[in-house]
């Protein structure tokens, strides 16, 4: 069988920070059978495997990845049945939100504009504007590392802020079902448009980034603390604390991954020294 795998390939074009070295292999399966075959093939070769969606929350170092990185974005079918929507791992959160709106279903408005996939969104328990994936998650079909299919319920998922069980167990999410409420599709559209407008107003979307660099600390906001410490606009190489939103570290055009990682570490240490609050990266750094 022909597999869509390339050897020794740059990761940067696939990643939303537009940095990172080469992966030993990159796989871009078109469907679940092909995803299974690539995982099986790489496991037999004893290669390390990393499953990614849109890499909008993942930062590879300049050394790249000594194994196989598999991007799921071509596996993106979405089906609606009653008030449930089932979407495959690589469907964009935005397209799932749009499908919900078209079917008069409310509950995923917050996800409109988050540039990740269903797999990455469930893994991260992505959220915005008062909503998060766990609010409407119903169940997911996952693959165990030895390629057995399991169904995980909401209870199995151990969701909390930017966390799910998927970071504990190396499962691959194949598809997820969301349970939504019937709503008025004009009102749903208005809410989605309002969230998108807020993103465009507040976020430096004109530069590559991974969104909020740090998790929100208890009773505070990372961006506020960083701004209070005078770090807005501070840069290392081509990596900069955004002038528009201090919670974002952006690639001004020529950043290396190591510039960005150094800046993340610097900001975290600086804020800790000044405020006693330790900022933890929300971005998943693969060093
Ligand atoms: C401009 C911008 C704005 C953003 N705004 C928000 C926001 O409002 N709220 C928010 O929460 N996040 C936000 N993000 C961050 C990011 O989009 C989310 O974390 C998103 O859920 C990541 O999805 P992804 O598909 O890109 O994940 P990736 O970066 O590809 O992966 C993230 C993690 O999920 C794992 N993963 C991915 N797919 C699977 C799968 N099928 N099975 C198992 N594990 C998998 C990966 O191994 C990795 O550890 C933003 C990012 C950007 C660039």
Describe the structure.
This protein has 287 residues and is an alpha+beta fold. It folds into 3 domains: 5-71, Uridine Diphospho-n-acetylenolpyruvylglucosamine Reductase, domain 2; 78-200, 2-Layer Sandwich (Uridine Diphospho-n-acetylenolpyruvylglucosamine Reductase, domain 3); 204-286, Uridine Diphospho-n-acetylenolpyruvylglucosamine Reductase, domain 1 (Alpha-Beta Complex). It is built from 8 helices and 19 strands. The strands form 6 sheets. The chain has a 5-stranded antiparallel sheet with strand order 6-7-13-11-12. Strands 1-2-5-3 form a 4-stranded mixed sheet, with helices on one face. A 4-stranded antiparallel sheet has the order 15-18-17-16, with helices on one face. Strand 17 and strand 18 (248-251) form a beta hairpin. Helix 2 (93-102) packs antiparallel against helix 6. It is globular. The protein starts with a strand and ends with a strand. The model has no long low-confidence stretch (mean pLDDT 97). Bound molecules: flavin-adenine dinucleotide. Flavin-adenine dinucleotide binds next to strand 3, helix 3, strand 9, strand 13 and strand 15.
